[in-house]
Design goal:
Structural class: alpha+beta
Number of strands: 9
Largest sheet: 9 strands, mixed
Shape: elongated
Mean pLDDT: 89
Length: 384
Amino acid sequence: MESNTGQVINLGSLYHRLEGLRDKRKAKGKRYSLATILVGMFLAKLCGEDKPSGIAEWVAYRGIWIAQVLGLKRKSMPSHHTYRRTLADIVDAKEFEALAREHHRHCGEAGYQVVISMDGKILRGTIDLDVSDGLCLLALYLPGEGITLAQIAIESKQSEVSAAPTLLSWVDLRNKVVIGDALHTQRQISIQIGKAGGNYVWTVKGNQPQLLQDLQDWFDPTVQLLPGMGCPPKDFRSATVTNKGHGRIEVRTLTTSSQLNDFLDWPFLQQVFQLERIITISKTGKTRCETLYGLTSLSAEQASPSQLLHMLRSYWHIENSLHYPRDVTLHEDQTRFKKHSAGHNMAILNNLVLALIATSDFPFIPSARRFFAAHPDKALALLL
C-alpha cells in the first residue's frame, strides 16, 4: 500500500494494523486519527521518550516531518492530554492486546523458539493504596526472540492461576515448552498444555506441599521410602554448569529421574528434577546454597539434564529482557495512571516497542533508542 506522499506501507505492518483499531471517539471534533496518535507515541518511545508530556513535546518538534511522511493535512500535533485520554478512554485494551497477538503471529519467525516463559508483573504506576493494589499483567514471552506472544490483565497476583488457562488458549502450544514459577504448578494447567500438544517445566514449592515432600524424599539419599528397606537403585542423571559474572560465581547442578512418573500421578509427567545452586561472592568468598525441585512433561529422550538447565536459565529472561527494561529503560512504573486501562495500554505499547527493537541489530535497548533519536526515519521504517 502507498500513502499520500508515496511512502510504501506494508499491509502486514504495525502501522497498517493500527489503522484498523476501533476508535471510540465521535467523528465531530476529531482532529487526529487514532493511528496517527499511536504512531506518534511509538516513534517517540523508540527515540527515547516515555511519559505523555515528553512524547507530546517530541512529536510537536517533528510535526512538519511527521505530517509530511504520513500525508497529514494538519501540521500541529496532539497535546499530552490527548495522549493520556487515548490511553485511558479511547483505545480498548483487549482489542489492542488482540492486535499485538495478531501482529506477532504473522511477523517473521515469531514463535519458532521452543521455550515460552509465563510470569506476571504488577504495574506500580496503577497502585492506589486506597482503591487498588495495582493492575497485574500475566504474559507469555519468547525469551529467545524478545517477543511477548500474549498478555492478559488481572486484578491481583493471586489471580494468575485462574487467568492462565485463558492466556494459554490464545497461543499455539504445539511443540512449545511452557515454563512458569511454582504458582503455576497446577494439575489443570498441566492438562491443558499437554492436550494442546505442548510441554511444561514447573518448579515445586509450598503451594504443593505433598508433591514437594515426595520430591525431597526421593532426592535425599538418607530417606528410606519403605520401612525396613534401603533405597532402590535410582536412575539419576546430572549436569553441572558454572557461570561467572556480576561479582559472583554460580555453580548449578540439575539431577533428573523418571522413576516417579506413576507414583506421583501428575498429568503428562515424564521427569522430576532437583536443582542445586551454589553461589559464591567473589569479593568476600561467602557462599550460599539453594535447592529447588521441579517436574516436567519432557521425557529423558526429549530433554537431558543439560537441556533442562538451559531452559530454566532462559526462563528468567522474562525478568531481564521484558520486566526490567519496561521498568528501568521505558520508565513504566514511574508513569502514574489513575485508570488501569491507561496503564494496560501503555504496557502493550512498551511490549511492542521492545519487540520492534528486538528485530533490529542492537545489543542494548538504550543504544537502539539513541540511534533512532538521531534517525527517526529508521524508527518509522520499523512501523511501516
